[in-house]
Design brief:
The chain is mainly beta. Helices cover 0% and strands 48% of the residues. The protein has no helices and 11 strands.
């Protein structure tokens, strides 16, 4: 079974930085898409950033220029460097993966069957 384990969440003041990591296991090779989603209290889950197997990256407009997604050479760990954090970035952040695909990867959460447990990010 696919396992995704997030780490790196925490509390930070507005303007600060945090780095999230997601370690994937339970499958061979590299996932077709991996990415980060978030859900704030009372709001729908939204895509933050995704990275495709061959490298293309998509960011949500709300984080572009502040957040950077990256993956290691094996494609089993993805990071999310979050800079210039805002109060509105406060949410539970989830790592997600889709092992196979043909179409381009998107920020639509329903396209991702595998999810981590989440890590809380609080900006005050």
């Amino acid at each position: 079974d696919v396992q995704l384990v997030e780490s790196g969440g925490g509390s930070v003041e507005a303007g600060g930085s945090l780095r999230l990591s997601c370690a994937a296991s339970g499958y061979s090779g590299t996932a077709y898409c991996m990415g980060w989603f978030r859900q704030a209290p009372g709001k729908a889950r939204e895509g933050v950033a995704i990275i495709e197997r061959n490298g293309p990256i998509t960011y949500a407009d709300s984080v572009r220029g502040r957040f950077t997604i990256s993956k290691d050479n094996r494609g089993k760990t993805i990071d999310l460097q979050m800079n210039r954090l805002k109060v509105e970035d406060t949410a539970m952040y989830y790592c997600a993966a889709r092992l196979r695909g043909v179409r381009r990867c998107t920020l639509v959460d329903s396209e991702y069957p595998d999810w981590g447990q989440g890590t809380q990010v609080t900006v005050s």
